[in-house]
Design brief:
Helices cover 49% and strands 8% of the residues. By secondary structure, the protein is an alpha+beta fold. Among the domains are: 68 residues, no CATH class; 86 residues, no CATH class. The chain is rod-shaped and about 165 Å long.
């Protein structure tokens, strides 16, 4: 049975709860404002926060520029990689990654000094020897190194071997320029007691980088993607997460298509918006849109009426069998069009009769056989003083016919013509010969035994059709349902309301007219007013209940209306 499309977690596909559910199963749910389906908006917000984080790092570095040498080189390298990773996030979300290269340069430079032949590690290690000296105070050690940088070690030591040894250990054969840069590094190390950034954590430290991640993502980042290992992969994390979401959507849509489920317009539109948003994030989803279009055939309507309608069409057997689910989909719509098409193009027998009796002109009236009148049935044409000229009878129990020398039980609905009138009119004689005890179906008998009852006449495709039973129900239900449907975007194609233009009238109403009068004048015998219309009537009805399934319920009386 067809139903509204649902996802793997039981939520209606395209509903707000659906997106909340699929996001919940991924890292995306940890992000701010991530409970909806505007993935690009969330990504843009992340990119903006990544830009802000990069700016924060720059401001922190500028503020502590003279102390950067005090940051361990490994920390500075990790922070530089984190800044680059944040830049990738900014780019992915359409940000600017402002001054990213400036931040990285500060971290990769030698603490803001001019060009140097020496590494920061060399300078830092030499500066630590000054700082950690137990022989000289910090003031004495700094003064010695300063003099040696200006005038050389021998001059600064002034013959003191202890001083010379101290300075040689620092200089390590690298010359006076090395001592000068070492002294600069020493001074920066001395100012490095406060290396905290805006977050309050030491620049380049683990807590500092985690704080940046929380500022950007609003949550902790999984270790394998974070700055913990010195190789953050924020863009990869976001892209994989969006791919996971897209994959879930694809799986749910394909399952819904296989199951022939449907989507309401509002949910389909949310799905389209979600796909467009994912596309703007760089996630390919173009192949999913066609599936949504196929699922979004639902056009509403009263499910009870629709279920009845589907049942009527099935009972007539004039179309492919429908699932009686109360859902007006493309298959039900096509069955409706097929039904109307068969009516319009004459797959039903033609009944070219005129008025049933035209009593004033013909002397013929409607009535019933003796037994039928007891039941209130009008199953006979009565002529003159009471002769039941032609009547339509149920099975006669324990009665037989002689056909080709054989006795056949009259256990079927049939036409009866009065034998005593044979010989009065040649046309009647032919009628008698062909149709006396002619079998008719129970449906035909139902019509012909209630000739006094109003019958519906339908004008469709330029034809006038007499309909009854299920055919009438189907027409009326079909029209009522179409009026209820919401098909503003034309999912169901052309409308059919104009095809089934009118339902109304009385089964003989369209037959009233002038033809009988003309026939009276032309026929020439007393029985002609009866035999001519009845001949047409019997021939049409008898043929209408064989062959085409729709013919059991419909007779074409187009010519009657002329």
């Amino acid at each position: 049975m067809r139903k509204e499309a649902t996802g793997s977690h039981g939520q209606i596909i395209g509903s707000l709860s659906y997106f909340s559910q699929i996001n919940q199963s991924t890292f995306w749910s940890n992000l701010p404002h991530s409970d909806g389906y505007d993935y690009n908006r969330v990504l843009r917000e992340i990119a903006s926060r990544a830009d802000s984080a990069i700016s924060t790092v720059y401001d922190d570095l500028q503020k502590r520029k003279d102390s950067l040498i005090a940051i361990p080189e490994t920390d500075r390298k990790k922070l530089a990689k984190q800044v680059k990773a944040l830049y990738d996030v900014s780019t992915m979300g359409g940000g600017f990654g402002s001054r990213c290269s400036d931040r990285v340069s500060l971290l990769e430079s030698s603490g803001g000094s001019s060009f140097s032949f020496f590494t920061q590690n060399e300078l830092k290690e030499a500066a630590k020897k000054i700082k950690d000296s137990w022989v000289y105070s910090s003031t004495e050690a700094e003064s010695l190194v300063e003099r040696a940088a200006k005038w050389g070690i021998d001059w600064a030591a002034d013959g003191d071997e202890k001083k010379k040894k101290f300075l040689r250990e620092i200089e390590d054969g690298k010359g006076q320029r090395f001592l000068s840069e070492t002294l600069e590094a020493y001074k920066k190390l001395g100012n490095g007691s406060d290396l905290s950034g805006r977050s309050g954590y030491r620049i380049g430290g683990e807590s500092y980088m985690h704080a940046l991640e929380r500022d950007v993502f609003g949550c902790s980042v999984p270790s394998s993607y974070s700055a913990d290992w010195g190789n953050p992969q924020y863009e990869k994390l976001l892209r994989q997460t969006l791919h996971e979401i897209a994959s879930q959507i694809q799986h749910n849509l394909e399952e819904a298509q296989r199951s022939n489920w449907y989507m309401r317009d509002e949910n389909a539109e949310r799905m389209r918006e979600a796909l467009r948003s994912l596309e703007r994030c760089g996630i390919s989803t173009f192949s999913y849109a066609g599936i949504i279009d196929k699922l979004a055939w639902f056009v509403g309507g009263d499910s009870y009426k629709i279920r009845q309608f589907q049942q009527k069409l099935n009972d007539m057997g004039v179309t492919d069998h429908l699932t009686e689910d109360g859902v007006y989909g493309q298959k039900t719509h096509n069955a409706w069009l097929d039904f109307l098409d068969k009516l319009e193009h004459g797959t039903v027998p033609t009944l070219a009769w005129i008025n049933l009796t035209q009593e004033k002109l013909s002397g013929v009236r409607l009535g019933g056989t003796t037994n039928a009148e007891k039941q209130g049935l009008y199953n006979a044409f009565i002529y003159g003083k009471g002769t039941r000229y032609i009547h339509f009878d149920p099975p006669h129990m324990n009665q037989h016919l002689k056909v080709n020398g054989k006795r056949i039980p009259i256990d079927f609905y049939h036409i009866n013509l009065e034998e005593k009138l044979v010989g009065h009119d040649a046309l009647y004689d032919k009628l008698f010969e062909k149709y006396n005890h002619y079998p008719i179906s129970d449906k035909a008998y139902d019509i012909l035994s209630h000739m006094d009852k109003p019958r519906k006449v339908v004008r469709i495709g330029g034809k006038i059709l007499l309909v009854c039973g299920i055919a009438l129900d189907a027409l009326e239900l079909g029209k009522a349902i179409e009026e209820d449907l919401h098909d503003a975007d034309g999912k169901l194609g052309r409308t059919t309301l104009s095809t089934a233009a009118s339902i109304g009238g009385q089964w003989g109403g369209a037959a009233l007219g002038a033809k009988l009068g003309a026939m009276i004048g032309a026929a020439g015998t007393i029985y002609a007013p009866i035999t001519v219309p009845i001949l047409s009537l019997v021939g049409g009805i008898a043929g209408s209940f064989a062959g085409d399934a729709l013919a059991k319920w419909v007779v074409d009386i187009t010519y009657v209306g002329e």
